Amino acid sequence: MQVIEPIEEMRRWSEVERREGRRIALVPTMGFLHQGHLSLVRDAKQRGDRVVVSLFVNPTQFGPQEDFAAYPRNFERDRRLLDKECVHIMFHPSVEEIYPEGYQTHVEVEQLSVPLCGAFRPGHFRGVITVVTKLFNIVRPHVAIFGCKDYQQLQVIRRMVRDLNFDVEVVGHPTAREADGVAMSSRNAYLSPSERKAALCLNRSLRCAEEMVRQGERRADAIVGAVRAQIAREPLAQVDYVSLCDAESLRDIDKVQEAAVLALAVRVGKARLIDNVMLKP
Ligand code: AMP
Q1: Phi/psi at 144 (5° precision)
Q2: How far apart are CA 175 and CA 148, in angstroms?
Q3: Is the distance from the beta carbon of residue 10 to the nearest atom of ligand 1 less than 6 Å?
Q4: What angle (nearest 5°) sits at the alpha carbon of residue 207, between those of residues 189 and 120?
Q5: If DSSP states are collapsed to H, E and C, what string results for 125-187?
Q6: In the chain, at which end, N or C, are there fewer CB atoms within 10 A of the end residue's CB?
Q7: Which atom of ligand 1 is nearest the CA belonging to 37?
Q8: What's the Rg (C-alpha) of the chain?
Q9: What 3-state DSSP class applies to 1?
Q10: Does the predicted model carry a pTM greater than 0.85?
């Protein structure tokens, strides 16, 4: 595996690969890799001849009170993991080169960025979409793989790709979970042993919602109420939001009729954890 830092070198590499007719698959990450990231990488290998994994802790998607400085990082470990997966390129640009002095251009997906996490993290999706746009322009992938765990992010990226006519196929990859059901996340590293146990309430409440729908419940208020009640039983957990929304528009719905997503964000200790489940009648 080759590690590339300069943007210009990344561009040149992609240009050569494209000219040779090879299909480039990109997996954007913020590093501190876990099996969830690696499942995206394996998916990428099936979809492209060349795999690029970008590793960039993007400052513009963190709010001023958020954990940018504290976000876990371990470059050497990440490099070893990706090397073992036979990734071709680890793209690791510097913050200074991505956002040079005088930087002032941002990309915003207006409506899909408003609800759910957007309501609690102002400017977050603007930062995400801006950096993904830049990565697409630099790496010029044919296909890019994102996790369904960050469901709103995936939808916002799909919309941006359509709206700005990017010639990139966007693939959503299912959420990888620990054996006990907790969604893998770099932020799980913040959890103490008791908080890690408390984090089980997210997945437990999602399974409860799934079961309710299987048994015929369709009313959003009943489902959301049950999910909130499940989480309220866990004293170390605090709900940011629980939302039952349309899988495409992310607008709240009253009834599960077509594809709906139950999405939630819960704070446990210093970690803000998100998870979701697709509910189909
Ligand atoms: P991050 O490093 O948190 O920005 O995540 C990089 C990519 O990995 C994003 O597309 C995430 O949605 C995806 N991802 C994170 N956690 C998981 C997981 N548990 N399962 C599948 N994909 C994930």
Answers
A1: -130, 140
A2: 6
A3: no
A4: 55
A5: HHHHHHHHHHHHHHHCCCEEEEECCCHHHHHHHHHHHHHCCCCCEEEEECCCECCCCCECCHH
A6: C
A7: 8
A8: 19
A9: coil
A10: yes
Please state the atom number of ligand 1 nearest to the C-alpha of residue 32. 2
User: Separation of 16 CA from ligand 1 center, angstroms?
Assistant: 29
Element (H, E) at 55: strand 50-55
d(CA 212, CA 277): 13
226 confidence band (pLDDT: 50, 70, 90) = very high
Task: Note whether 160 and 107 are within 8 A (CB).
Answer: yes
Which of the residues are catalytic? Answer: 37
pLDDT tens for 143-181 read 999 999 999 999 999 999 999 999 999 999 999 999 999
Q: How many CB atoms lie within 10 A of CB 43?
A: 20
Q: Could you please report the per-residue DSSP string of 183-250? A: BP-GGGGG--HHHHHHTHHHHHHHHHHHHHHHTT--BHHHHHHHHHHHHHT-TTEEEEEEEEEETTT-
CB atoms within 10 A of CB 188: 19
